[in-house]
Amino acid sequence: MPRARSSWLAPGRSSSSRGTADAIREGMTADSTTPPASRYRIVIALDGSEYSQIVLEHAFDQAARHRVPDLHVLTVVESRRADLASIKSWLARCVVERLEATGRSDWRTRLHVRAGGAEDEIIKLAAEVGADLIVIGRHGIHHPRPSVADSVVAMAMCPTLVVALAGREHEAEPGCLACARARAESDGERWFCADHSETQDVRLSTLVPPSFSLAQGPLW
What would be the CATH architecture of the domain defined by 5-163? Predict the structure, then answer.
């Protein structure tokens, strides 16, 4: 039995008019000899959790850096018995609302729903579209260890942006108050206090001067 797979353009764009709209947006005319701009293809994996909007926000920030982004937003369900109608409705609402809120409704955006293993389907879609970037979250159902994000990073053939939830607690080595004071007083010119500048541990730091050139000699 074939796997459940669904793909459709974001509302407001019909597949029949896609070519004409793309040509107009990329500055092409029927008589133009200028080659079309290369699309920057981003696969965005959403898991249906409350953090999906955070992943979308980071993905849109990456897309905005390119003149002709091509977005492929994917959510993966575990079984063909899932309520596909509800999932498609959620995905469409989530993406279209974000496109409208950011004024990016002209971006070419395709929505995908697939059944199977999340990491496998994400990698398959990235290969199908020739993705330049994958954006995925490390929270929600993506947070088990080993996480889906970890597996995608290991298998991906393109750069992968993993969006972690901000504000998570993490253990860190207690900072040196004298070092912090040295940085504040020197506006970052000095990084370590006198004691830590002479430590035998390899902890090096230097500030690159404005307009520095290697022709001037060693940096440090």
Answer: 3-Layer(aba) Sandwich (3.40)
